[in-house]
Predict the 3D structure of the following.
Amino acid sequence: MKKLISISLVFLSYLLLCSHSGNSRQSFSEGSYLGFNLMPGPNSGIINFAIVTPLPNGTQSIQAITRNDFIRLASGLLKSEVNPNGENLFAKYEVEECGFYRDSVFNKTRLFCNTVDQIWKLRYKMGPYGNGPDSLGWTRATVPSMGQMSLLKEYGVNSLGDYFFGEQAFKLLHDMQSFGWQSRYKSS
């Protein structure tokens, strides 16, 4: 019984932490949006993907999802409250080379999105995925510089823990594809 109470308290604490307040400059109508942030969290990778629902009191309800769910929802493969019409949001916001294909050899749907797989570069100097040119992030230190955070504020966040979500998240993914934007970010 004590173990159940302890687990319940930990879970409730986690839910309270996930109900994150941010001073986003975005204004949203009611609804839920796909999003991500740059802070690793419990039971996640180095980037958190989520369904973000802005609440009337200025906080956000955060429902954690996986990278694969993010791609499924954004590509329109799955319908939900964040994409009820099954629209390909990657195509809408011109985020290239993202989506899914049917692997006929293994009879399995394969998901891909190089840009989503590079979100970590906004936060880290060195990547967790080995050596080589693809293992280098876009920051010069262990966290983004003040100049880089200033650039990220254009996408509706004020801190690493804030979520990029909705149109702003997809605008960031679109902009990340540009070598000019990458260069500007690296030098900020």
Q: What stands out?
A: The longest strand covers residues 48-54.
